[in-house]
Amino acid sequence: MSLDQEQQDQMILHQLSQIEKFSSVHRRPDFDTNFAYGTAGFRMRADLLDSVVYRVGLLAALRSRKLDGETIGVMITASHNPPEDNGVKLIDPQGEMLEASWEVYATKFANARSDEELAREYFNVAETLKIRLDAPCKIAYGRDTRASGPALVSALKDGLSAAGAEFSDYGVLTTPQLHYIVKCINTAETSSPYGEPSQAGYYKKLAAAFKAVMKGKPKPGLITIDAANGVGGPKLAELLEVLGSESLEAVIVNDDVEATQKLNQQCGADYVKTQQKLPAGAEPEALQLYASLDGDADRIVFYYVDEAKKFFLLDGDKIASLAAMFIQELLEVSGVEDVEVGVVQTAYANGSSTAYLQDVLKVPVTCTSTGVKHLHHAAQLYDIGVYFEANGHGTVLFSAATIKALESFEAASPGQQSAVDTLLSLADVINQTVGDALSDLLLVLTVLAHKSWGPSEWNMAYTDLPNRLVRVVVDDRFAFKTEDAERRLVEPQGLQAQIDELVKKYKFGRSFVRASGTEDAVRVYAEAATRLEADELALKVSELLKGL
Ligand code: G16
After folding, report:
1. Among 155, 251, 306, 377, which residue's CB has the most CB atoms within a 10 Å radius?
2. Of ligand 1's atoms, which has the minimum distance to the CA of residue 97?
3. Are residues 386 and 455 in the same domain?
4. What range does the domain containing 413 cover?
């Protein structure tokens, strides 16, 4: 055996013994249900997460080693969930969600029953994937404002130290900021660096692009933004500071991050979307634009009230339609040809939005399962892929070839050049790594300014079918299995037939049931021709679940 080999073996043994040693400090709780890497990583009550986060640190190190030392992100957040929850998710080098094939390793690590079993799993994954345990690895991590965050960061650091990783703490930041930073780090040495890998770099990039795309346009009217008492509040304030009041003015409400128990309570994007009403703290002013972020600022929904104080929601479907319409118009004016714009939605998309996109805008629409990870990949198949979940999570992806085509296009008129410039600035306003509430805010304000529209003109493109989303707590949400992009249940057997029978009775009726991947519950969605019917259909389908 060569000395090198001997040294390497010793290093591996040392690493495995460190993993076991630290694992004994971060023991898996006695917990009947298995941990699962769900829609957005692991998410549950924070007091159950210590061992999971420690183990995610180990996996992050392996993932980085597998990818030749590219930086992997780890975000500690539970986004829209209540204050007592927390969660953890991994970010791949280009700022995307963790590659799906690795979720099984995450789940295996989280469920290992003993310190020894964990070290064995770690070694097995390295063997299976031919990962050198002495290869360099780098991790960037951050957290939201939850009270449980600092303790979970300690668990993560133990995992990273045990695995011998190099790591950088980016502190408290929004989830999309960390996605942005990870991409910046990994593209720094390439021919197209994404930006400066810091929060300051993020603000600088967004502000410069917004100013460029708004050149010659009137400053947007005052907007009121509900920050869900989460990390988005202070980060939005920082962005506004960089933008300057000459570019944008906003009133931020629900920005109390010190009172951590207020997070997402009676406010935030999820509350507004599901309750279809104004959040606490927002005073209704007719025809003014409002927006709500979620707890980690990766989702946004807009809304307004009319003169009669009637509430109108402008959700992810409305944002997707607005963005697709604007981009198509710009492409047409620019004269740039052969750029396919497509939209990606999920089963939660309002039926009217899909009809508008397909029949009026004539854009292709893909439907995927819930979860940004699914939508993102489907959107990458278009030259310009607009993806939004109805809950306000989404972005617009411009392919590298499209950016190149725009940059090298020879415009025949100032009008064409202006449209091309607007498209290019728009691509920089929009966070290309993941759905980002702050960047989406600027996107929407840009389109409204270019169209000289207020919220009611935006809302007029199509009328939503009345809909209702209900959360139902069941004994075992994992018993609910779906097919057809979650639009139909396969199990429990017979349930889909019962839903179909109910749906038949309603004009424009549609309803589906799926297990949440972020909460211990199932979600029931229903839409129908009238508010009363949509509510009734949701109630009746929910009642079917109670009998199980
Ligand atoms: C996460 C995911 C979203 C998903 C949402 C709800 O959002 O990133 O893609 O729509 O959970 O998922 P589910 O219905 O499975 O609970 P966030 O903003 O909570 O991170």
Report:
1. 155
2. 8
3. yes
4. 316-459
